[in-house]
Amino acid sequence: MARLEIRNISKKYEQQYTESFSLVNIDLTVEDGEFLSILGTSGCGKTTILGIITGIIKPDTGSLFVENVDITEMPIEKRNFALVAQQPLLFPNMNVMDNVAFGLKMKGVSKGDRLELANDILSKLGLKGLEKRFSTQLSGGERQRVAIARAMVTAPKVLLMDEPFNALHEELRVDMRELLYKLHKENRVTTIFVTHFKEEANFLSDKIVIMSKGKIDEIKLL
Q1: Environment class of residue 87 by beta-carbon count within 10 Å: exposed (0-12), middle (13-18) or buried (19+)?
Q2: What CA–CA distance (Å, rounded) separates 209 from 108?
């Protein structure tokens, strides 16, 4: 867990055939253990902010700090952040257990320890009994739960979630947000959750950032 500060971040995209887009002077603090949602319509800059935080996108101006350490130029792999995307993006040649334990293996965690950690998170996410299945043998909700397990098992400083439930039907969306709410209360991982569903943000969040056209319009504490 960690405190994340976004200071005066800007990013401009020049488009040849469509209107140019700019992310303008974003100042935001996510407290240690906080669940923050970024709420707004498509194209408002939500995903660009996530890309800058992960290091996939380089800002034109501004800085990022984790626990007062400037990470603006830090390589992606050294930030110890985890991202859950809209699509699960599981490794198709690996079963559930190997998918979840993969990040731990890359960190050099011993086989015994990574199996223990993976089993624990699979149990918390209701995935026990599915360890040997491949992604093609899972439902959409199961695949997304595996993606969340894979992200959380590495104990990231910050968990980033980019509209992770968008591809799910309404009943399953409700189930998944209730599961995520429970997990966050148990683990208190600093979380940034991107959505365009107001009810989802209200249910999950400690704080909501409302955006439009590349700017923060309002910050609501819940």
Answers
A1: middle
A2: 37
Backbone angles phi and psi of 62, in degrees to 5: 100, 175
Q: How do strand 4-13 and strand 69-70 relate by DSSP bridges?
A: unpaired
Prediction pTM value = 0.93
208 has a pLDDT exceeding 90:
yes
CB 101 within 8 A of CB 115: yes
Count of CB atoms situated within 10 Å of the CB of 10: 15
Q: Which two tokens stand for residue 34?
A: 């906080």
Domain boundaries defined on the chain: 4-80+156-221, 93-154
27, 31, 35, 90 from 68: Cα distances, Å: 15, 12, 19, 33
CA-based nearest residue to 190, from 150, 218, 148, 156: 156
Closest C-alpha among 127, 120, 129, 131 to residue 95:
131
pLDDT in tens, 92-118: 999 999 999 999 999 999 999 999 999
| Predicted pLDDT at 22 | 87
The whole-angstrom separation of Cα 122 and Cα 178 is 16
**Residue whose structure tokens are 């990013």:** 11
4-80+156-221 carries CATH number 3.40.50.300: yes
Residue position matching structure tokens 């148990």: 186
Label residue 201 exposed, middle or buried (CB < 10 Å: 0-12, 13-18, 19+): buried
- Main-chain dihedrals φ then ψ at residue 157, nearest 5 degrees: -65, -40
